[in-house]
Amino acid sequence: MIRVFPRRTKWTPSDNLAFVGDPPLFRPCEQEQPVRISVTFTWDVPEAERLYRAWGQYYSDAEMGGPAFGDPGAEFIPGRFLEHGRVITSRGCPSDCPWCLAWRREGHLRELPITHGHDVADNNLLACSREHIEAVFEMLREEREPARFSGGLDARLLSPWHVDLLKTIRLKFAWFACDYPGAVLDLERVADLMSDFSIEKKRVYVLIGFNGESEAQAERRLERVYFMGFLPFAMLYRGEESREWSQPWKLLQRKWARPAAFRSSSLAGIARGHLKQSQLALEGIQ
Fold first, then answer.
1. Helix 183-193 with 215-227: angle, nearest 10 deg
2. Closest CA to 18 of 81, 109, 112
3. Cβ(233)–Cβ(218) under 8 Å?
4. pTM
5. Would you tell me how many other CB atoms lie within 10 Å of the CB of residue 20?
């Protein structure tokens, strides 16, 4: 099967039957080869429609699909629409977060057969049954690569027994989320449960700009996440229509997507704070 993608990401397959963009000059010669155009983001739909016409000139069996079209997903096949090493062991989510489309598209949680891979991309692995979660960790212990949880672990559901399982594997990093101000409280509990893990292994997707949040409010939340012992990664809320953001918002997101940038600026902020406190103390003495 030929798979076509509107854009390349780090998750895009790289085998000989995976293509990004237009048909190349030298392409698979079997005219009956099915072509599946996979679209993750709704703002890529116009480009996908163009690609559908372009590839349809050479192949009669061409279709578009994927999350952008509300596809609920079926059984996960390694390497087909995600690069080898990425694995999905469940689909859907029991939560109904207003900013998220996973539960709208994929419905309630469904556990899938577990296939091998070191990077777990489930929407909400911790919502699965204990039996399923333990089986996922058993699979990860067999992998050569350190485990990653790029799909994210639900901070609201993390329990001590989950942390015990994390200690049984070679962990590269685990992602959590802080999508709204109140989620900071859940992260505080996670910080306590995962105090034995280094900051490099604890990362947080931080959705910013949702529901009228100001730049100042967003940065304070990012700083709080960082000083709790996590590496935050800021993501601007785009919605289904791919909202455009002002330059200050883009600069804020860029800063808090690069640890080197926000670590240096945070240390400078601490130094300024200490200097200010020292100045106030001296004024008090005088």
1. 10
2. 81
3. no
4. 0.84
5. 15
CA dist 60 and 47 (Å) reads 19
Token pair belonging to 28: 């698979």
Domain definitions of the chain by residue range: 1-71, 73-277
Predicted confidence (pLDDT) per residue in 160-210, tens digit: 999 999 999 999 999 999 988 889 999 999 999 999 999 999 999 999 998
Q: Quick one: CA dihedral 78, 80, 84, 86, positive or negative?
A: negative
**Residue closest to 86 by CA, chosen among 151, 177, 169:** 151
Higher pLDDT, 94 or 240: 94
Write down the CATH number for the domain with range 73-277: 3.80.30
What pLDDT score was predicted for residue 236? 93
The DSSP line for 84-144 is TTEE--EE--S---TT--HHHHH-S-EE------SEE--S-GGGS-HHHHHHHHHHHHT-S
pLDDT, the chain, mean? 88
Backbone angles phi, psi at 256, to 5 degrees: -90, 20
**Residue appearing with tokens 């996590």:** 230
As given in the structure block, the two tokens for residue 234 are 């800021």
Residue 145: pLDDT over 90: yes
Q: Are 169 and 141 in contact (CB under 8 A)?
A: yes
